[in-house]
Specification:
This is Cytochrome c. 41% of the residues are buried. The two termini are 38 Å apart. This protein is low in regular secondary structure. Among the domains are: 34 residues, no CATH class; 62 residues, no CATH class. Bound molecules: heme C (4 copies). The site of one heme C has 17 residues, from α1. The site of one heme C has 19 residues, from α2 and α5.
Length: 344
């Protein structure tokens, strides 16, 4: 990855190329050099042939025990795609043949003769890659979601909306059992009904606030256009006709109690693969404002407390080409899309 040039892919999961980008900067004249290591930018898949090494800090999944040395594409995706969604909505590893992908708005609906694949061929209950021991087998099902077929695209003018339905937080807890629940790391709810984590649904006040929030200082938004792909939420349903209709007919609508129980989930803040920011975050959570003077980067300046070593091209790509001018010139972090004040 050449200096100053961002990775190319803009898929919802995020480009693993960010793992090869380490940034350093000085925040001010007194502070020591700060850094954001490539390792910290998400899931370090070990793929030696492509120069991807296992994570150098975490020996295992934070809040769980999955070994970092064994983390690869097939830790999460079942290469044989045996997990299937059936006509009655259940997930199984055998039964009716899988007719097609189940990930898209264009995917067929399972019927009496055929099933479709799980979202993105993600592994479900009992999944454990070949060669790993049974104690690491997944406890939770693949999540429910629908992606648009043109999902790998610039968001310079329009958003890419994945209709995240339900089950993402539980699915991530297959490996991160005790994350953000007060025993490990920053405390925050992420609704997961299968794991009994019921906190994290958005109440009416938060839904209204999400709908109104456009950017720092601008609360003039409305429900029909409130969705923001840098701060997605779970719709709170496994009903695929609702999920498909949201992707195709109202791709930008905000959380709606008529569709399900909207909730904050792991992917509200993180990307599934990697991002340009620490901890695979969707935005830079290590700075008090994500724009400065209307720009993401402070590339020509000596001190870069906000730009943090990224070039404008890199930061723009990390925000999926969202123009910096869509934000306030001194835009706060995106926790404020849901919280009027961020609780301490
Ligand atoms: C830690 C679990 C995990 C690992 C490891 C992982 N994936 Fe994914 N992948 C996901 C999730 C979750 C999604 C869905 C992302 C979304 O829709 O927001 C996804 C989505 C995808 C997609 C659809 C496009 C996109 O980015 O949304 C492709 C293709 C893909 N993964 C390929 C890979 C490959 C190739 C590897 C290894 C180099 C890999 N994945 C490793 C969890 C993982
Ligand atoms: C198959 C097990 C597995 C699953 C499933 C999984 N992770 Fe991870 N995750 C790991 C391991 C192992 C690490 C530590 C290695 C690393 O940081 O690269 C990790 C690290 C992380 C980190 C820290 C990254 C960093 O750079 O410090 C975040 C954030 C994270 N996972 C989020 C998620 C989210 C969100 C999901 C669900 C979409 C998820 N994980 C699903 C195994 C998993
Ligand atoms: C409200 C936003 C938010 C949500 C929701 C969220 N995270 Fe995080 N996560 C963060 C932030 C911010 C950090 C960095 C915390 C820090 O600096 O210590 C983080 C850190 C992590 C880490 C790295 C911990 C470490 O010490 O290396 C993992 C793993 C992780 N999150 C997984 C998850 C999983 C799994 C879920 C869902 C069950 C989840 N997160 C939900 C914001 C969130
Ligand atoms: C998608 C919406 C959403 C986003 C984005 C979000 N939160 Fe939350 N947050 C919630 C919900 C829902 C709750 C639980 C209800 C409540 O406390 O109002 C919550 C609760 C909290 C709590 C109280 C946690 C506890 O258990 O005591 C803190 C602290 C918090 N959020 C901080 C943050 C921070 C920091 C960020 C950004 C990194 C963030 N939130 C981003 C939805 C969100």
């Amino acid at each position: 990855m050449p200096f100053g040039t961002p990775p190319k892919q803009l898929s919802p999961g995020g480009d693993f190329g960010w793992l090869k980008k380490t940034y350093t900067w000085y925040a001010d004249v007194v502070s020591p050099m700060a850094s954001s290591a490539g390792d910290r930018h998400g899931h370090n898949i070990s793929a030696q042939d492509f120069g991807f090494q296992a994570d150098s800090k975490n020996a295992s999944a934070p809040g769980g025990s999955y070994p970092s040395s064994a983390l690869s594409c097939t830790s999460c995706h079942d290469p044989h795609g045996t997990y299937r969604r059936n006509q009655d909505g259940t997930i199984s590893t055998s039964g009716k043949p899988i007719r097609d992908s189940g990930s898209y708005d264009t995917s067929p609906t399972p019927d009496a003769q055929t099933s479709v694949g799980s979202y993105r061929m993600l592994g479900g209950t009992g999944y454990v890659p070949q060669g790993m021991t049974g104690g690491l087998a997944f406890s939770f099902a693949p999540p429910s979601a629908v992606a648009p077929s043109d999902y790998n695209r610039s968001e310079a003018t329009t958003l890419t909306r994945v209709a995240y339905g339900s089950g993402f937080s539980d699915w991530c807890r297959n490996c991160h059992t005790n994350i953000h629940n007060g025993t490990y790391s920053f405390k925050h709810p992420a609704a997961g009904f299968a794991s009994g984590a019921s906190a994290g649904t958005l109440d009416v006040t938060m839904i209204n606030y999400y709908d109104q929030y456009i950017k720092t200082g601008d609360l003039t938004g409305s429900a029909a256009t409130a969705y923001f792909s840098l701060v997605p939420f779970e719709i709170g349903t496994q009903n695929y006709s609702i999920l498909k209709s949201i992707v195709t007919t109202s791709p930008t609508k905000g959380p709606d109690l008529a569709d399900g129980s909207p909730a904050v989930m792991c992917l509200s803040c993180h990307r599934g693969h990697a991002s340009g920011w620490d901890y695979g975050m969707r935005w830079n959570s290590k700075t008090s404002q994500i724009t400065y003077n209307g720009k993401y980067s402070q590339e020509s300046l000596l001190y870069q407390p906000y730009g943090q070593g990224r070039t404008e091209a890199e930061a723009l790509q990390a925000y999926y080409q969202t123009p910096s001018l869509k934000f306030d010139p001194s835009q706060q972090g995106l926790c404020y899309k849901c919280h009027a004040t961020v609780p301490q």
